[in-house]
Amino acid sequence: MDARQFRHARNQAGLSQQQAAAELGVSQSYLSMLEKGQRRLSQELARRMVQVYKLSPVSLPPAQGSWQPKMTDFEHLAADLAGLGYPGSPICGRDALPETQVNSC
């Protein structure tokens, strides 16, 4: 959510800044600064906005430092899975293929 969307969501909920601020537990001036993009929205306040403005939880901004998948190559993936005790696919098992094809899995 950006600053413009904060104001739009509040207006859609039919709340004045004063009413919304009271329900969110912040001052009206702080809410005004949020809506102007002069303050950053905390995760806790974002959750309260979802409840007060009756928004979908999908509208929450992603958490900072949220999980991002990393790209890896086959060797790293195999080592990571082996570390977890993953038995692997029977198709790629050493007993399932001739020696010349084992390294192609």
Q: Into which percentage range does the β-strand content fall?
A: under 5%
As for the number of domains, it is: 2
CATH superfamily of the largest domain: lambda repressor-like DNA-binding domains
Gyration radius, in Å: 25 Å
Number of helices: 6
Q: What is the CATH-assigned architecture of the largest domain?
A: Orthogonal Bundle
Overview of this structure, please?
This protein is mainly α and 105 residues long. It has 2 domains: 3-59, lambda repressor-like DNA-binding domains (434 Repressor (Amino-terminal Domain)); 68-105, no CATH class. Helix content is 48%, strand content 0%. It contains 6 helices and no strands. It has helices at residues 3-12, 17-24, 28-35, 43-52, 74-83, 99-102. Helix 2 (17-24) packs across helix 3 (28-35). The longest helix has 10 residues, at 3-12. It is elongated and about 60 Å long. The model has no long low-confidence stretch (mean pLDDT 77).
Task: List the main descriptive attributes of the protein structure presented here.
434 Repressor (Amino-terminal Domain); mainly alpha; 2 domains; 0% strand; 105 residues; elongated
